[in-house]
């Protein structure tokens, strides 16, 4: 068993930001596809939903990335503090 005693905050922040941007892109694509199907019933509603999907993918991706980085770094600092007091996560590496 190995114990994770500390995380590098910038490294965790970067990885968390990448994950969050990826999630925003997936959500944006799903909403865009829903907009395509909504065009069957109403062209205007479908176009609006498609626009929202694009906005989620672009603007949401930026926002998710920024907040993912910030909170990833904050939580790694919190983990580092707790791990020093109570011990880190133990895991078996093969």
Task: Give a concise summary.
The protein has helices at residues 9-38, 43-86, and strands spanning 2-4, 89-91. With 94 residues, the chain is mostly helical. A two-stranded antiparallel ribbon has the order 1-2.
- Summed up, the helix count is 2
Number of domains: 1
**Number of DSSP strand runs:** 2
Helix residue percentage: over 70%
What's the gyration radius in Å?
19 Å
Distance between the termini: 10 Å
Query: Biggest sheet, open or closed, and with what strands and sense?
Result: 2 strands, antiparallel
Range of strand content: 5-15%
Order of strands in the sheet with the most strands?
1-2
The secondary-structure class comes to mainly alpha
Shape: elongated
One letter per element, helices H and strands E, the order comes to: EHHE
Residue-averaged pLDDT: 93
Low confidence ranges: none
Secondary structure blueprint with pairings:
Blueprint: E1 2-4, H1 9-38, H2 43-86, E2 89-91
Antiparallel strand pairs: 1-2
Helix pairs in contact: 1-2
Account of the protein in words:
There is one protein chain. The chain has 94 residues and is mainly alpha-helical. The chain has one domain (2-91). Helix content is 79%, strand content 6%. It is built from two helices and two strands; from the N terminus they run βααβ. It has a two-stranded antiparallel sheet. Helix 1 runs antiparallel to helix 2. The longest helix has 44 residues, at 43-86. The protein is elongated.
């Amino acid at each position: 068993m190995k114990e994770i005693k500390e995380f590098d905050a910038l490294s965790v922040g970067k990885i968390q930001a990448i994950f969050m941007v990826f999630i925003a892109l997936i959500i944006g694509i799903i909403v865009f596809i829903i907009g395509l199907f909504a065009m069957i019933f109403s062209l205007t509603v479908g176009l609006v939903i498609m626009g929202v999907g694009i906005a989620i993918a672009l603007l949401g991706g930026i926002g998710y990335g920024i907040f993912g980085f910030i909170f990833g770094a904050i939580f790694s600092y919190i983990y580092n503090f707790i791990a020093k007091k109570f011990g880190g996560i133990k895991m078996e590496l093969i």
